[in-house]
Design the sequence.
């Protein structure tokens, strides 16, 4: 906040007020899209914590979401454990997998693209394993019990309630992730992470324990993704391995930080609120073209959104490699110049 200009602070407060008011002023469709935006903003913070802060590229982050979702879903459907308790087990399982990947990657000096391939390999392995896990539903899916009565009111213990409740839950998670990442980035851990990201050899030479602080980044990021998995499971109430752990889900996680600005605090949020509504508008436009006859109804358009996202990322990488958020900050003068910051 100290780095923001008066206009920047006013804009931040206005944005926060708008987010709080969305359930009161928006339609049901806009509310659902806003939930997706906040979910991707939260996941973008988790992913950005690894790449943007510690320089660790992961393209298999759906793995941790899937583990959190299936763990909490199984405990709820089979053992009656509410998600308020099951989230602890979900985070533990996700962090355990993160520790395995981190240990293998860092102990055997697997870095860069090869570390990203390691995350994909584990994600695909777990997805195939879940496909054959009959006690978790396998390819037929796991369905969480839900009733019309549970869709009304507020039950945070069992994570059951109205769409408005889910919105405020994911809003609280996204805000909490933002504040936590801000505290980490401005603390000693954040300085160590950035030193490791920019020059690991120099960081090690001055006494930074690279293995330990990289493990911190992986564990925190995977744990955050595990929490997102719990929300995903109880918001959608159905889990399919391909749907939850597919490579498309991992790619979606990376898009918001890349478009908004990798390594920035507000970039993942900005990117999520740019990409998601544009993707939804494109989907609606394509369906409208089908209805009007401009596009044949038998033409498959399932990949249009992914093609749009891919084009958007390519343009951002070419034109604004640092992302849109730093450019917007500069244009609108939301942040003080470096010489005037505290």
Sequence:
């Amino acid at each position: 906040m100290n780095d923001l200009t008066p206009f920047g602070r006013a804009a931040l407060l206005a944005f926060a007020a708008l987010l709080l008011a969305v359930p009161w002023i928006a339609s049901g469709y806009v509310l659902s899209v806003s939930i997706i935006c906040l979910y991707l903003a939260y996941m973008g913070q988790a992913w950005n914590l690894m790449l943007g802060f510690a320089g660790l590229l992961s393209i298999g982050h759906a793995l941790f979401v899937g583990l959190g979702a299936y763990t909490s879903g199984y405990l709820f459907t089979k053992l009656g454990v509410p998600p308020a308790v099951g989230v602890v087990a979900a985070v533990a399982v996700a962090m355990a997998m993160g520790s395995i990947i981190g240990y293998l990657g860092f102990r055997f000096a697997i870095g860069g693209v090869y570390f990203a391939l390691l995350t994909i390999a584990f994600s695909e392995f777990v997805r195939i394993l879940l496909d054959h896990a009959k006690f978790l539903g396998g390819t037929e899916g796991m369905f969480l019990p839900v009733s019309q009565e549970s869709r009304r009111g507020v039950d945070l213990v069992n994570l059951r309630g109205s769409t408005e409740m889910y919105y405020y839950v994911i809003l609280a998670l996204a805000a909490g992730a933002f504040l936590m990442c801000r505290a980490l980035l401005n603390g000693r851990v954040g300085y160590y992470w950035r030193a490791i990201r920019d020059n690991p050899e120099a960081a090690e030479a001055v006494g930074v324990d690279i293995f330990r602080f990289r493990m911190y980044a992986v564990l925190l990021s995977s744990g955050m993704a595990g929490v997102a998995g719990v929300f995903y499971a109880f918001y959608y109430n159905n889990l399919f391995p391909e749907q939850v752990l597919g490579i498309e889900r991992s790619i979606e996680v990376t898009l918001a930080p890349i478009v908004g600005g990798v390594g920035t605090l507000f970039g993942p949020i900005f990117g999520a609120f740019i990409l998601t509504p544009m993707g939804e508008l494109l989907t609606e436009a394509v369906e409208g073209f089908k209805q009007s006859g401009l596009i044949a109804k038998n033409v498959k358009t399932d990949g249009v959104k992914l093609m749009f996202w891919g084009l958007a990322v390519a343009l951002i990488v070419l034109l604004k490699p640092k992302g849109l958020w730093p450019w917007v900050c500069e244009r609108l003068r939301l942040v003080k110049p470096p010489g005037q910051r505290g």
In short: Strands lie at 142-143, 154-155, 160-161, 238-239. The longest strand covers residues 142-143. The radius of gyration is 20 Å. Residues 28-54 form the longest helix (27 residues).
